[in-house]
Amino acid sequence: MVKPRHHWLSDKLLWAALLLAALVVGLPHSEPLFASLFPQLERPVYRQEPFTQLLWQHLLLVGVSGAASVLVGTLAGVWVTRPQGRAFRPVLETLVSMGQTLPPVAVLALAVPAVGFGELPALMALALYGLLPVVQGTITGLQAVPAPVLQAANGMGLSPWQRLLQVEGPLALPVWLSGVRTSVIINIGTAAIASTVGAKTLGSPIIVGLSGFNTAYVLQGAIVVGMLAVVVDMVFERLARRVAWAH
């Protein structure tokens, strides 16, 4: 099937990414707009750090914590679906559920006395907070593999590792990816509060705005965080379509 000549013009992901780029580059130059919206504010535009730098640091924090969540959550999820780890599944699910129910602010408050201010307590809180969707996606995906398929793999003489890597893993991939998508999107929003412990993220304008009663700062930070979540979600949506097509 021949694609239209300018099919890229209808690419929603491209337009969303361009809008995000326009926001981080254009916000420092939007003083007339925010001055008209918030005439009572003496400084209506956040200029303490460039939004491009905050976006990069936000992505780095989410990427590192997300990688830790995916690695630990996937290994733990695989382990409790094997015969030797099946008895520990209730314990694992209880622990990761507790991690999800703890407010991230409380985790940050507990981590700061132990590791100090900065990115490290934020990484710990985000990695803990992102575990549950990955563990659930891994367990659900592996358990959804049809029994006849597993019996056929056993009949072919595949070892447990070969069966996991060549049969169960590929079939569980769409559900696992859905769990990773949820984990990352949650952490993009949650990373904003990491600025309360000294980590520089897109939450910095929000925290400074809240402490200084500057609604314009809060609005600018919230818009960029929201747009970043939309762009990353669209990337995962496209990836999920490719995985579904491959199946």
Secondary structure: number of strands: 0
Secondary structure category: mainly alpha
Q: Span from first to last CA?
A: 20 Å
| The first-level CATH class name | Mainly Alpha
Family: Belongs to the binding-protein-dependent transport system permease family.
Keywords: Membrane, Transmembrane, Transmembrane helix, Transport
Main location: membrane
Organism: Hydrogenophaga crassostreae
Overview of the structural elements:
The protein has 247 residues and is mainly alpha-helical. The protein has one domain: MetI-like fold (Orthogonal Bundle), CATH 1.10.3720.10. 73% of the residues lie in helices and 0% in strands. The protein has 11 helices and no strands. The longest helix is centred in the C-terminal third of the chain and has 32 residues. It is flat, with a radius of gyration of 22 Å. The mean pLDDT is 89.
Give a quick rundown of the structure.
This protein has helices at residues 12-26, 31-37, 51-79, 89-101, 104-115, 119-129, 131-143, 147-155, 160-190, 204-211, 215-246.
What would the keywords be for this entry?
247 residues; mainly alpha; MetI-like fold; 11 helices; 0% strand; flat
Topology:
Blueprint: H1 12-26, H2 31-37, H3 51-79, H4 89-101, H5 104-115, H6 119-129, H7 131-143, H8 147-155, H9 160-190, H10 204-211, H11 215-246
Helix pairs in contact: 1-11, 3-6, 3-7, 3-9, 4-7, 5-6, 7-9, 8-9, 9-11, 10-11
